[in-house]
Write a structure and sequence with these properties.
Blueprint lengths: L3 H11 L25 H19 L8 E6 L1 H12 L12 E6 L11 H6 L9
Parallel strand pairs: 1-2
Helix pairs in contact: 2-3
Length: about 130
């Protein structure tokens, strides 16, 4: 896995459960033709299914574990789509807390949005230092 080192760091330093997801037709997952899907919706639905399966096994009524989604490039765009569709944020409906970690997400910014909208919502912590 490309992100094994990052996964191990997060697991050890933050006592976190980390799992990887291969998008349909990418990485080690099956799918033909390789690296082709009709739309990002398919990738988002597939990723959401895997997150929901893993998270459902871990969550109990007593303990509401935070969920952080990391995405790079196309995975960043898919992760952002996941967050938008599920109103994901600091207080997710149903008690899910967490956030997004995006590295060079495959997105373009709208000229109609002021830059301060992005900069004003950016928080950096230990991972970014």
């Amino acid at each position: 896995m490309v992100y094994d080192t990052l996964a191990k760091l997060l697991a050890q330093k933050y006592d976190a459960l980390v799992f990887g997801h291969d998008h349909v037709g990418h990485g080690r997952s099956s799918g033909e033709p390789r690296a082709y899907v009709e739309s990002l919706n398919i990738l988002e639905q597939d990723m959401a299914m895997h997150i929901d399966e893993v998270y459902a096994k871990l969550r109990t009524d007593q303990e509401k574990l935070p969920l952080f989604v990391f995405g790079h490039s196309m995975g960043g765009a898919v992760s952002l789509l996941y967050a938008i569709r599920r109103n994901f944020g600091p207080e997710y409906p149903g008690g899910l807390r967490g956030g997004l970690m995006l590295m060079a997400p495959l997105i373009s910014l709208s000229n109609s949005l002021p830059a301060r909208w992005i900069l004003g919502s950016t928080e950096t912590g230990e991972l970014a230092s």
